[in-house]
Design brief:
binds zinc ion; Peptidase_M20_dimer; N-acyl_aa_amidohydrolase; four-stranded antiparallel β-sheet; elongated; 17 strands; about 30% helix; Peptidase M20 dimerisation domain-containing protein; 11 helices; alpha/beta; signal; metal-binding; single chain
Length: about 450
């Protein structure tokens, strides 16, 4: 008797071991994906796409397509579809960009493309937070849904897209995709994109991006001998403007420091370059003519506008105060993204009951034991702007709580337990949104 119980225990142990070795390991998939170098300037998109493609094929009910967005460059986009039973309903689209920013290996504790997991479960890699975590979490969430509920039938279709080039503006990525026939046929009703880590117990969610402007202000003036005092030199005019912009920047920053507004809710105007002077010779040693006041001078600013700002009012301020013609100043703005949608509305997604997608999303996060913090404007930009400009409600959300914000930073990492909790959150979100039959605007 004792012997047969021992045998039975051995057999059970053997099968459990076998099961464990064949059970897909999401953390392992995450590490494998992080090891594919998709950092700029030379992202390996084909390998990343084929890895995700294989992973998707191991999950029930998923259909896959690879689109080539550019006829001459390797810019593949992987589109994964979980068909819903009512294709006439607007679909849900989950997005993750394939690329990442570069990393400086010498500044990292662990090599940035080895995806080393430390004893306490932290996985160090470029892209761990931005945004390869969500790429794997989406798929593992769908795998879990069918594992736990084999008979689950989504009503709405769910798509996942893996796009190239987000980190360099998305012109050969999301911008091309939204123009494609494939995208139009998808009838996207709600878009979920990347967000950012939260340092506390609540998940952050973003309902808008700030829009970047590249602003150059330029002054011209009478040139003159370095020894001469006269009014309206180009340098004097520019320096006056630099002071005015600095004052404006200080006032905006004061609102943040006083806790009245978040960083992303004010206009930032950060100086990024100053250009003036006459180069002394062509030797390239950077020496300038010192006894001559130049006839031209300019300054460059990175300006970011929250969607609540009236862009025309800011342009007027620039024309009146920052670069007034009365001081021989001119300016040039390159708007790096849209500020209003096709109907002229600010690029904002409602986070109240007027947006049924929001209500279902929020309840789903809570049903999985998650808590959302007050919705925010993202300080930077993401591919979500390409959706909002089409009037498609879009939220930025990466379920990373109790995690330092390390996107684009050295030693970017994500802890395995946080990553796995994020999969549970997406299981709830995907299940709820794909089962949601109610009317949407
Ligand atoms: Zn990102």
């Amino acid at each position: 008797m004792v012997k047969s119980i021992w045998h039975l225990t051995l057999i059970i142990f053997f099968f459990l071991t076998l099961l464990r070795s064949t059970t897909p390991d999401p953390v392992y998939h995450f590490q494998q994906y992080l090891r594919i170098k998709t950092a700029h300037p030379d992202p390996d998109y084909p390998t990343a796409v084929s890895y995700l493609h294989e992973l998707a094929k191991s999950i029930p009910n998923l259909q896959t397509r690879i689109l080539n967005l550019h006829p001459h460059k390797p810019k593949p986009l992987l589109l994964i579809t979980l068909p819903g039973s009512n294709p006439s309903l607007p679909s849900l689209l989950l997005n993750s960009h394939l690329d990442s920013v570069p990393a400086e290996p010498s500044k990292w504790l662990h090599p940035p493309f080895d995806a080393v997991k430390t004893d306490d479960g932290c996985i160090f890699a470029r892209g761990a937070q931005d945004d390869k975590c969500i790429a794997i979490q989406y798929l593992e969430a769908i795998r879990n849904i069918f594992y736990k509920h084999p008979g689950f039938k989504p009503i709405r279709t769910v798509h996942i897209c893996y796009v190239p080039d987000e980190e360099i503006g998305g012109l050969d990525g999301m911008a091309k995709f939204v123009e494609s026939d494939e995208f139009k046929e998808m009838n996207v009703g709600f878009f979920l994109d990347e967000g950012q880590a939260s340092t506390n117990d609540e998940y952050r969610v973003f309902y808008a991006d700030r829009s970047p402007w590249n602003l150059v202000i330029k002054a011209t003036g009478q040139p003159g001998h370095g020894s001469k005092m006269f009014d309206n030199s180009a340098m004097e005019n520019l320096m006056k403007s630099v002071e005015v912009v600095s004052k404006f920047r200080e006032n905006q920053f004061d609102l943040v420091k006083a806790g009245v507004a978040r960083n992303s809710e004010v206009i930032s105007a950060n100086p990024v370059y100053l250009k003036a002077g006459i180069v002394a010779d062509s030797s390239g040693d950077g020496k300038f003519v010192m006894n001559m006041q130049p006839s031209e001078a300019e300054a460059g600013y990175d300006v970011r506008l929250p969607p609540t700002v009236d862009p025309d009012l800011l342009k007027k301020r620039i024309a009146d105060e920052w670069a007034p013609a009365s001081r021989n100043m001119s300016f040039h703005i390159v708007e790096k993204g849209p500020l209003r949608d096709y109907a002229g509305r600010p690029l904002v997604t409602a986070t109240n009951d007027s947006n049924p997608w929001w209500t279902v999303f929020k309840s789903a996060v809570e049903a999985a034991g998650g808590k959302l913090s007050k919705p925010e404007i993202l300080a930077s930009t993401t591919d979500a702007r390409y959706m909002r400009v089409r009037g498609i409600p879009s939220l930025g959300f990466s379920p990373m709580k109790n995690t330092p914000i390390l996107l684009h930073d050295h030693n970017e990492f994500l802890k395995d337990t946080i990553f796995l909790e994020g999969i549970k959150i997406y299981e709830s979100i995907i299940k709820a949104l794909s089962s949601f039959e109610g009317a949407t605007p």
